[in-house]
Specification:
75% helix; Transcriptional regulator; 3 helices; flat; mainly alpha
C-alpha cells in the first residue's frame, strides 16, 4: 500500500455542504469521498494525457488513418444501422 499524506485544500462552502450530505448518505466520511474524487480525477487525467501523447506520437510516425477513410467507414456504419432499424420496424 502507498504511504499516505495530508493535503489541505480550500473549497466553496456549498461544495463542502454537498460533500457532507453525500457522505452521510453513504455512511462514509467526507474526507474519504474527497480522497476518492481526487484519486479518480488524477487517474482519469493521467490516462487522458497518456492517450493524447500516444496519439501525437502515432501522428509523428505516420501511424494514422486518412480522414476520408474514417468518414467512409463511419458512413457505412451509419447506413448499416439505419438498414437494421428499418428492417425491424
Amino acid at each position: 500500500m502507498s504511504s499516505r499524506t495530508t493535503m489541505t485544500i480550500e473549497i466553496r462552502q456549498d461544495v463542502k455542504d454537498q460533500l457532507d450530505a453525500l457522505a452521510s448518505g453513504v455512511e462514509q466520511s467526507s474526507q474519504r469521498l474527497a480522497e476518492e474524487a481526487v484519486t479518480t480525477f488524477v487517474e482519469q487525467e493521467l490516462a487522458l494525457r497518456q492517450s493524447i501523447e500516444k496519439g501525437l506520437a502515432e501522428g509523428r510516425t505516420g501511424e494514422v488513418v486518412p480522414h476520408a477513410e474514417v468518414i467512409a467507414e463511419m458512413r457505412a456504419m451509419i447506413d448499416a444501422t439505419r438498414r437494421k432499424r428499418a428492417a425491424r420496424g
